[in-house]
Amino acid sequence: MDYTEYLIMAAQHSKYNAGHWFRYLRKLIDKYGISITQEQIEALYCNEALTPFQRVSLRAAFQEGTGTQQHIISLNQKVVPSKLAFVRVKNEH
What we know:
Strands 1-2 form a two-stranded antiparallel sheet. The chain is 63% helix and 4% strand. The model has no long low-confidence stretch (mean pLDDT 81). It has one domain. It has helices spanning 3-13, 18-26, 38-45, 52-61, 67-75, 81-92; strands spanning 29-30, 33-34. It contains 6 helices and 2 strands, in the order H-H-E-E-H-H-H-H. By secondary structure, the protein is mainly alpha-helical. Helix 1 runs antiparallel to helix 2 and helix 3 (38-45) runs antiparallel to helix 4.
């Protein structure tokens, strides 16, 4: 399965769930680079399997320095235990 087929399957599985869609995109983006070509992105953008949201977020995810790309990269980073403890304490109050 190539990346185009993978993202079409991902689009169908996460049609109404943005968080799920971003987790699929996360597998193709990391802080060291992108695993998909611009031609594959353009082919996906024209595919009817993607919703309008998925098309827009797909394009933004693979453009350098966008907020969407930064969000996806942050999903790839480990959670710092001290930050997790702070959120837990904050939510208990």
